[in-house]
Amino acid sequence: MKTIEIVSSLFLILIGAVFCLSSFDLGIGRINAPGPGLIPLGTGGLLILFSIGTIFEAYFGRKFKGKASLFRGRRWGVVLSVLISLFLYAFILDILGFIVTTFLTMVVLFKISERQSWRMALGTSALTTGFTYFLFDYLLKCSFPKGFLGF
Amino acid sequence: MDFFNGVINGFAISLSLTNLLYCFIGVFIGTLIGVLPGIGPVGTISLLLPATFHLNPVSAIIILAGIYYGAMYGGSTTSILVNIPGEAASVITCLDGYQMARKGRAGAALGISAIGSFIAGTLGVIGLMFLAYPLARMALKFGPPEYFSLMCLGLTILTYLARGSMLKAMSMALLGLLLSFVGIDVITGLPRFTLDMVHLMDGIGLVPIAMGIFGISEILINLEEMVHRDIFQTKIKGLLPNREEWRRSGRSILRGTIIGFFLGILPGGGAAISSFISYGVEKKISRYPEKFGTGMIEGVAGPEAANNAAVGGAFIPLFTLGIPANVVMAVLLGALMIHGMTPGPMLLRDHPNIFWGTVTSMYMGNVLLLLLNLPLIGLWVKVLKVPYRILFPLIILFCLIGAYSLKNTSFDIVVMLIFGLVGYLMRKLDYEGAPLLLAFVLGPMMEQALRQSLLISQGSFTIFFTRPISAASMVLALFLIASYFLPIFKKKRLRIEEETG
User: Of chain A's two ends, which shows fewer C-beta atoms within 10 Å, N or C?
Assistant: First the structure.
């Protein structure tokens, strides 16, 4: 757990450093006439400081009720599959259009979590896709992408 | 507009058929998401925000506020019947509510929680009405240093009250501030941290961040654990508590209301904390503290009253100062701004209809919720039985559509998913999402107030310590930070944490 705490703090330090460095490019200005980079520089600096503090806390400070492992014994495979399918959804939505992309993603999501019959997964996916399309596109005029198939 | 006219005008707005319908939709959805796991009020309000774009601002806020206090009612149902809180604010209700259900008093527990919520919710709204105007008048005298110091204090209290490490919570607040700087700088007009992406010129959207951190991440956590919810098999009968239970609950409800209302006003306070404190108080003053956790009705009545009264209290800093007291209020602030309103003292002066319309609709909302939650309890129990494997794809689909429909671009979906992943990892590593989101909303206001203050003082930070309100806020914030690190306070804090779990 300690290693993960340190890695996460190092990641935050990296983010703080990136903001600090970019702030210099934006222009710091003077304290009585702050430039656009001054406050992000200060905030980034504080983030670095607090993240270093978190590393110290992980080493020497109080022990928090941490988990022995972040992923052991958990269904992280399901989480990963869901995330991948959702990112794919975002990337192919404009190409395949709302109806096809949503239907396919719903089938994957219904099948991914627990074993469900194909008939059930296909039926529920078709129903939800149709219902949401009718509600958001037809009634609420959300105008979803049509894709190269034209629907 | 004076007080009396305000109330009459407010009721004229909230009692119109359209607004009553919006109020009903709000509290219905609120109860629904309170009952359902996997999505809370923050995620839902963000999700439905785009759908309110075409409504007038009063109706939009009526519907969104209804979701918030509706969720407080709904959350208790799952706590009592399933021992799984639908909402963070209902966690404590599990302790005695579920035990009451096991002893055959599920009806009384549900009844007292709905009636207690109604009484507290209504009293909270009355408090809001009376306190908002004087406070707003006072806030008109505030300048940038006061605003900056108050916002610093709000963030400090929120991080101080965070679970676990305050350092981690502060890091999240700072990360939220940094993210809020992305986009065009309002003073110089220069793009900042946009990575040359056109989509980031307007900054990162509040809605995709909120839906990611509070919606998607929650679903991912639920998916990896896949909790099976065993609904307590009992016939719910007799929703009215008996005379003895009434006698024991009355004072608890009043105490819970007072605790909840005042903690709700405090930045960083909010419904969840007030319910914990109310439970602690009830246990402390009870003649039978050892019986708490075995089905004591005071342990249900007090916290449930507290979390509903906190809602009324939380609106006070939003309407009077324009500073959100908690994350839900932060999202509502975003909603008001999208509708062209700037919350704060000017809102009450320039747009009194928004204030009075919303406040009076909350009376109606509480009545509707009582009707929804008592006679229709069977419906919510049926909703509880919908398996999560069916539910989660639907919640995800609504999140995807919500993110897309903001600007009709897939970019916001990607942002939402990235923050969903970030939120998922944050939950695992005990980093809290609330400070990040609140800081993200406050960021632009804080930066502007700080820059203006420095311009006024010609670069001297003493300006924050020479004006009384600003100085008091800053000193309190610094005291809270120091108390986290000073050993004498640290020990006490750890002891309280252990006691409250």
Answer: C
ipTM for the complex shown? 0.93
Cα R_g (chain A), whole angstroms: 24
Q: What angle do CA A43, A49, A50 make, to 5 degrees?
A: 90
Q: How many CB atoms lie within 10 A of CB B390?
A: 15
Model pLDDT, residue B497 = 57
pLDDT tens digits, A28-62:
888 888 889 999 999 999 999 999 999 988 887 65
Cβ–Cβ contacts within 10 Å for residue B300, how many? 38
Chain A, 105 to 124: residues with Cβ < 8 Å from chain B are 105-106, 109-110, 113-114, 116, 124
Q: How far apart are CA B306 and CA B294, in angstroms?
A: 20
CA–CA separation, B395 vs B368, rounded Å?
Answer: 25
Sign of CA dihedral A108, A113, A119, A125: negative
With beta carbons less than 8 A apart as the criterion, state whether A12 and B171 touch: yes
- What percent of the residues of chain B are helix, what percent strand, and what percent coil, each to the nearest 5? 75, 0, 25
Task: Determine what percent of chain A is predicted with pLDDT higher than 90.
Answer: 51
Please name the residue ranges forming H helices in B339-387: 345-350, 352-373, 377-384
Question: For residue B169, how many other CB atoms are within 10 A of its CB?
Answer: 27
Q: B406-415: per-residue pLDDT in tens?
A: 888 999 999 9
Of B190, B224, B417, the CB nearest to A75: B224
Among the partner residues B408, B429, B458, nearest to A32 by beta-carbon distance: B458
C-alpha–C-alpha distance, residues A128 and A118, integer Å = 15
Comparing C-alpha atoms, which of B441, B120, B165, B435 is closest to residue B263? B120
pTM of the model: 0.86
Are A19 and B414 a contacting pair at CB < 8 A?
no
pLDDT at B50: 78
**Residue that the structure tokens 């508590």 belong to:** B241
pLDDT in tens, A66-102: 555 666 667 788 899 999 999 999 999 999 999 999 9
Residue ranges of chain B whose pLDDT lies below 70: 1, 37-38, 226-239, 268-269, 487-501
Asked if the C-beta of B393 comes within 8 angstroms of chain A's C-beta atoms, the answer is yes
